[in-house]
UniProtKB/TrEMBL annotation:
Role this protein plays: Catalyzes the formation of methylglyoxal from dihydroxyacetone phosphate.
Gene Ontology BP term (one): methylglyoxal biosynthetic process
Stated family: Belongs to the methylglyoxal synthase family.
Keywords recorded for this protein, A-Z: Lyase
Residues of the MGS-like domain: 9-154
Lineage: Bacteria, Pseudomonadati, Pseudomonadota, Gammaproteobacteria, Pseudomonadales
Organism: Ectopseudomonas guguanensis
Transmembrane segments: none
Root EC class: lyase
Substrates-to-products reaction catalysed: dihydroxyacetone phosphate = methylglyoxal + phosphate
Protein's name in the database: Methylglyoxal synthase
Length: 154
């Protein structure tokens, strides 16, 4: 089987940011988002179910909510990444608690890596992402060339 080829795409200046947090990390994510509210307000926000509801109330910003992570919300976010409808993932996951939907979590992180989007898995890395000079400008990046992939199999 041939290796996947790559092409270039543009991350837009106004990012579509997915916000996800495990139960024990929701408070950390809510506090972080409150501190970063002004920056987040300039972008489109999407989150898994409970996290999205909590964020929209606390930040008083529009947040599109998927269903709850364990019920498929992680997979919904992953699908949007693959469709190039999410540009950045902030996922505060809990390294101390086993998660019943661990395969979904690994799949979400894998698809984010495949599609080469910025990912932050904790408060420090999220601070670095939001302080980047690239946050509010277009940015060219490498993605899998799906059309070439299909052509090679057709």
């Amino acid at each position: 089987m041939s290796r996947i080829s790559f092409t270039r795409a543009q991350l837009p200046a106004r990012k579509r940011i997915a916000l996800v947090a495990h139960d024990h990390c929701k408070g950390f994510l809510l506090d972080w988002c409150e501190r970063q509210r002004d920056k987040l307000a300039r972008h489109e926000l999407v989150a898994t179910g409970t996290t999205g509801l909590l964020l929209s109330k606390r930040l008083e910003l529009p947040v599109e909510s998927m269903i709850s992570g364990p019920l498929g919300g992680d997979q919904q976010i992953g699908a949007r990444i693959a469709e190039q409808r999410v540009d950045m993932l902030v996922f505060f996951w809990d390294p101390f608690e086993p998660q019943p939907h661990d395969p979904d979590i690994k799949a979400l992180l894998r698809v984010a890596a495949v599609w080469n989007i910025p990912v932050a898995c904790n408060e420090s890395s999220a601070d670095y992402l939001l302080s980047s000079s690239l946050l509010e400008q277009q940015h060219e990046y490498r993605i899998p060339d799906y059309q070439a992939y299909l052509a090679a199999r057709g």
